[in-house]
Batch of 2 targets.
Target 1
Amino acid sequence: MKPLMNIALLMWRAERRSFLRGLFLSVLVLLMGAALLGLSGWFITAAAAAGLAGAGAVFDVFRPSAMVRLLALGRTVTRYGERLASHDATLRALSGLRIRLLQGTLQLPFRSIERLRANTFLNRVMADIDALDGLALRLVLPGLAGMSAILLAGLALWVLVSPGIAAVVVLGYVFGPLAVFFVGLRYADKPARLAEAAMQALRTRLIDLIAAREDLTVYGQLSKTRDHVGIAQDRHRTARNRLDRVERRAGFSLDLVGSAVTAATLGLGLTLAHGQAISPAQAAIGVFVALALAEAVAPVQRALTETGRMIQAARRVAPSIAEDSPLAANPMPMLGGSAELRFDRVQYRRGLGQQPVFTTLSFSVAPGETVALTGASGSGKSTILLMAAGCLSPSSGAVTLGGVSIDGQSDDTLQERVTLVPQRHALIAGTVAENLRLAAPLATDAMLWQALNAVSLDQVVQQKGGLEARLGFRGDGLSGGESRRLSLARAVLRKPSILLLDEPTEGLDTATAASVMAGLRKALPQTAFLLAAHRSVEIAAADRVVAVERLIE
Amino acid sequence: MAQSVSADEDFEAPLRSLGSVLSLAAALIWPLQAALIANALAGLLQGREASPFLVAAAFFVLAILRAGLLALSQRKLSEDAEFTLTRLRSELVEREATATGASVIGGPGALAALAGEKLEALRPYLMRYRPARMRVSVLPVVILLITLWYSWACAVVLLMAGPLIPLFMALVGWAAKDASERQMVEIGALSDLLVDRLAALYDLRLIGAGGPVVQSFEHASESLRERTMAVLRIAFLSSTVLELFSALGVAMIAVWVGFSLLGQIGWGTWGQGLDPFAGIFLLLLAPDYFQPLRDLAAAWHDKAAGEAVLDEMQTWRNDARPQLIGDGGAATTWAGPVAIGLRGVVLRQANQRLIYPDIDIKAGTRTALIGKSGAGKTSLLRLLAGLARPEQGQVLIGDEVLSDANADGWRARLGWMPQAPHFLSQSLRYNIGFGQPVTDGTLMRARINGVIAALPKGDLTLLGDRGAGLSGGEARRVTLARALQSAPDVLLADEPTADLDADTAEKVITGLMDYAAEGGTLIVATHDPRLIERMDHVVEIAPDRERVDP
């Protein structure tokens, strides 16, 4: 529950004004509803009493009937405003939550961001964030509004009818639904978790079944895997049935709470009226208000269904949510300059007590020099680049930049000087220019064209409609080789002292690859290049070659 | 379990289901409770003393009955919904298990989404919208008739307000619909946008682009919020119209009842004036005339979501795909001699027919299938494994024709190395042996033991999501180990050395040659000269193609 409360508080603090507006209007709607029914009940009963007493002519009908009309119209209009205000608050919170998630994720260690590349993990995060969307609209706002409306209505009943009836309404409507909510939550917790776990298993196993269908068929495993899907499905059904039962019982209890309060106000009102303590019309107010307030507690059932999911989601997402939102200050001063990158007796182990991945390594890359790392796949070339970028620390030895150890340098300082282009290219949905300006927000169009020219991509971009050509999700719309070159152009815009390239020309034909390598050097004459080389065209572009020898077979 | 939805019936059936009827019955208790309250209050006015305790108790007993009926109805509805969902899910799993080729719906992820959370969207549709529709067709009529019994004037008010509501809602809703549909797409787009950014975050941080990414997302998100609010301003109008009419209807009845009771209005009833009971009763009933309409409006979104899912299900169902040969289960090993033949085989592929030449492959030989990419080499391997059904002609195994009867037994003798394997979300060990013990010998022959030793959890390392954690070369050797594991008589390998560096390729080739040297029949589809030169036979695959007009 605590992570959920924290997220709720975070949302509240960030959007206090819109939340308060939504809350105020929600309370107003509930109160007007109670007032409308209460007033109508009083009006009719009092009118009947006056009619029976033959005093119909002197009864003031105009003020109450005008009030009834006013409340009816006012409530409708307020309801409209309330809907807009609470949805506005929710949308703000929803967008704020996503932004905080991005910011929070940016502050995590590199290792944990890498997990985000896996689709299953991404889907998980998305499902959690979606679950939290209902936090304001279904839990926080209705809960606070319902409570406030009940208390205020109780106050009015105390003054207008009798303290006893006010006490029945407040006590019944506050403690009854609260008890239903918390007891229900306890019983719903386990089946809700089981149902979600079973649903995840169902998805994963079905994906396995379909994606590996041919392999499974050849190995005679198709029926077995299909049965695994069936088992997950059965587990989901069982958990879901239990969850439904809890929800049903909560709904039943909630109905009874409302009816018990109404029955009590009816009984108490009749007793008091028999004793002439209150008039029949006042007794009617109590009953009608009790009926109207059922609306204030109705959201409990829906909230119960979703709170379990929200609690779990909050537990998982909370660590990645940024607490405060400092606008990540990053208008990047572009320190040029040059420095030598040096590896001094470096070793790397994947875990404690494991043998090193490659033989001890010492080399340096001077400004303007190109060094190629060669070696079989899995020998650790990418690992070396990650160490040079400060994303991994060597197990022993030191990586230095201009004589200063990279270890312990802040991300910002390092990123000003070192740029790594990993094997997988990360483009985002948006225009070509947007993708490029991620690296250099202040770059002019001319600078962008220069960078594109350096990687022989300018003509391609021109054909696609220039810098404003739109790319789909993850850079959809460009071929593999084109995406690769766009990532390289982005790196050129950083004007780094050290440029680390992981198999930079993968997917390019030999002629293009050679011209890209030459273009990069021409665009960044003073930069030290370190590349994990796979192809002869990359090795040919290097001044020196460092062979990485794999130790792990 | 409910039998209300039989296998062939469509989804209209639950409309007359027991669950909906029970929910209607629960709603019909309210007039009785209202009469009780009205009678008690009227009694107070007219000096009829009734025991407050008995009145309250009677009201509460009716309430228990009402809540009980409602709970029962929900239980029934929930069972029916579960039954429908289970049936649709099972249908999807069963058919996908033995289908071949891709679905029109999309890849495995899209199908899993359909079977998972999308089908779940049917639940509120079946549980909320359907019973609401039943109530809306009965309750207002009942309340109208009761009202008419006491006062024609009130009945006229209800009659005027009631039918106007759907009309106005339709008008406003119609204007909002188009806008809100676009909106749904955009809200989905915001999620996609977040995934897009999150997936790229690692690399973007490496180029110091963290800040700009957050800012651009913030910008997109903010503009989406503004557009959403613009749409909601119209969309909420339709429910406001509904509430306006119901509020005005109730207020008009309250005012009319008040004036009648005071004796200031003499018309609107059948002769004699309105008594206090009737007045209070009518007031209590009036809101419930509109309630079913409001329930239906609230469930409108469930309907749209539910029907979209049913449409998608139907699209999937209409997509006829060939079934694989056999059923893919474990079977008794087929006992005939290993000799493979192709006789006049024609394979339908999208809008083309591939006409293969007749081919014979003898036991214990090494055969390379070569040809341009896309020539049909992979399809030939799939034909030999019974994973594709020839449109004409026969695949011979020994002297039998490969058919549903012997395909599973034949496959029990095969090893299979696909070019792009999908590993199950299970341990590495399970991915090699499928639950059977894996011997060190197998791992040695596939040259994979070193790789396993270097993994943090050894052969218990979890795979999945396209072999996360394994490089291309490692994944290839895992598929080799899996193929060798069952000591197959025939090994079919698709481009076993593609995209591998020389060192790793050599390891894979040696593993394959060792297998052939022990008497296995090896069939590889390949471009790789290093591999081709070590084979006994080279068969060029260049099937004739014939366009098929759809």
Target 2
Amino acid sequence: MSTGCLIGSAVIAVIVAPWIGGLLRGIDRKLTAHMQGRIGPPIIQPFYDVIKLFGKKPMVAGGAQLAFAYAYLALIITATVFFALRQDLLVVLFILFFGSLCLPIGALSVKSPYSQFGGHRELLQFLAYEPILLLAAIPIALKSGGFTIANIFEYGQPLLPHLWITFIALLIALAIVMRKSPFDISSSEHAHQELVRGVVTEYSGPYLALIELGHWYEMVLLLSILGLFWVTGGLWWLSIIIALASWFIMLIVDNINARLTWSWMLKFAWGAGISLVALNILFINLGWM
Amino acid sequence: MIGTLVGLAILFPIITGLICLLIKNHRARGGIVSLTAVVLIISSILFLRQGPFPIEYSSASTWDSVILVFNYVILAIFLFVAIRDIGQRGISRHNILAIALTLAAGIPLAIFEFSWAPHTPLEVTPALYIDHLSIIMCLIISIIGSLICVYAIRYMRDHEEHRMHLGELKETTQPRFFFFMLMFLGAMNGLVFANNLLWLGFFWEMTTLACWGLIRHDETPIAITNAFRALWMCLIGSVGFSLAIMFLWNSSLNTISLMEVINNGAAAGPLFLLPFALLCLAGLTKAAQLPFQSWLLGAMVAPTPVSALLHSSTMVKAGVYLVLRIAPGFQGTHLSTLIAIYGGAVFLATAILAISQSEAKKVLAYSTIGNLGLIILCAGINTPLAIAVGIMLLIFHAISKGLLFLCAGAIEHHIWSRNIEDMEGIARNLPLLTGITIAGMLSMLVAPFGVLIAKWGAMEAASSIGVWSTLVLVLLMLGSGATTVFWAKWIGRFLCHSPVPGSSKMEPFIPLYHGILLMLITFAAVFSILIAPVYNSIVAPALTETGYTAALAFTTGAWFLKSPMGIFAAWPIFIIITLALLIPALTARAKPEASRSSYMCGENVEIGVDEFVAVADERTGLKTGGFYIENILGEGNLNRFVVPVGIVLLVILFVVAMI
């Protein structure tokens, strides 16, 4: 792909991603409501919410809180841009992690018990999913011959048949990143559980809107990474199907599970998630896959 | 010219150290220390501009005799202080082990030097072998080490004033302190230049001596105990040294020239990996790897500049330097793979242990041990890319960790505590100092800084070593996750405060604190931006000279650093991330009227007051705290597994070396 094309796709990614993310969020709420026997809000409710939040009066409860809300969004957009530019997958992940880290640090920079609670738990979520995502880059690179996303496009064959074990592990990681049950230990949809609102307790108005926007980008980016598993070798549209199917699985899992403890989450992620990817790497190294 | 520069690098700091020993005047001593710093920095930079490398240099043979004599003098000092300690404080595990291990290291060495060697002292040509790897070390020691010494001028004054105020100290002990600090720098420079294994061993002992002297500096019972622990643990490495020398001389190789051992190691016969394993043992003890980590953790009782020096530019760096130096000798062997696994295990174990620590210097210490583990992992992977990454990590870790210890020291002198819980919200009163500290932590943790670039390289390098790479990578990734957690939650503690009514005030600028800290954080940033030229000008030549193909490590362009498997677009990432962080950090300021107190279910008192209304309208203090998961991840719990694992790995290391 020419440089111009790449830059074009980066621009498109930055513009389109939040629309897709917001829409998915809306469908999520609608479907969840149906599963719970409610009607639910309109599908474009998340956009109404964000627009309304931007219109609210800014309020701040701690020193560095603001900077981290901006940095969160900016870094996740940066990661999206580097993804669209088909850069090194590890580098994209590192930038994404840095962005994700702004959320707990922002939460910890307010002297508020609920926010601290959410921040600490968010760090534990991070501890659970970061190693899986990083490790998952390895079998992808081993199979496609390099760590850049361009390598995956040049590889010419779908990755999923060789890397389905890694894919399962990534689904576990995705559930943790998206804070879906049973892994929603750092936040909750409802305002009056023991967490109040987890990491975002102390964010309100326009700053909460920034974070919501960041979430949308983050979700689209993660789903795109899952899409990489069938991006070449004909039937490229399967990548979109795979991404959407993964998202739908998350939704189902979210609705049929209750929140579990952090130690269970960590054991499950480090035990099952890491072992799966490790097995995949081992199989590739032994020439079995 | 070379002779002069070698003299300036090794002898000059030792001599000025001796002068410090005689000077009682604070100002004059500060002058001497600053002068030494300036001379060391300039001479190390001049050294870099010498060439062509490698330089082989042999001094007059009298120096061989001097080193021979002083080597036994140092061993005698060890014996003397340990026996004196028995007299003063009774027999303990530490002083008995110190005596036993001094003898175990000294007697084989004496047998070798006075009975086996054809003539005493045994000379080797060249006595000094100086290539880019040595020069990189020399730059780290001379620049960062010197800056730490300059910082110590102010720090030790405050430190002693505080101790005198508490009545713990009657008269100044700074002459001795600066003697050991400066001698340390000279010994380290000697260590990285030495080619004659006897010389290397001598400088090795000298760093052990300086380290012992600095840890026990405050002369509290705990300091004395911990100093002895450091002494005997490092002496285990010295035993390894002596045995390696005997083995090498007795083998068909019949040499004690380090370069010959590395280049023709395999000619030493079927057991040729054994001396490498023994030298690795020396490196691992010095680098405080498992199961020897307790000496470095105990070393934190020393004044903070000592920790900064031990962790960034001297002592532990000698350990990883040695492992990196001899890595070409065991390339492609099982020993190499095992060393990679060993490093990975250390990286993971220390990262998890660090989560449970609330003592600032202990967190930093675990982080150091972990990063050294990462360097050792790179040496074990032993591909050109891995070695390049190891060297880069050596540089960046030295800058960032030196900075962070000095930050911890400066913070300590503002709040008189080393506990992270006491650092809650200090960003409010010490904005500049906290800002630099957080920047330093980020430089250990996130893109685009050098440590992360190195981590990225390590991950890509580790993926290329076949079946065992799976294990190494799992250790590496899990460790990486845990590392993020302990840094992030510490950063969170600094920032945790209620909104400040009115505009915040900057703390007074102390040149010897803030100035040096700013200098180091600038180094961290500039070297990260200039990573491609830095790689090309010093790291790539170091690779070539040690026998690796630099082209297989990184290729560089104006915008990027390219490994054989991936690409790090250094410049664009740096620019974008700096913008993404700096603009909000500097401009995102809420208007005072936007300040609110945090969510307390509506029971708040007023904005900026950390209280809430309890029963009967009673105002109750609001407290928050960090999390440490002490009951699960604490030392008491994890060391039961971690230490045995370290011992087992060490045993396997030797088994692998012998089969």
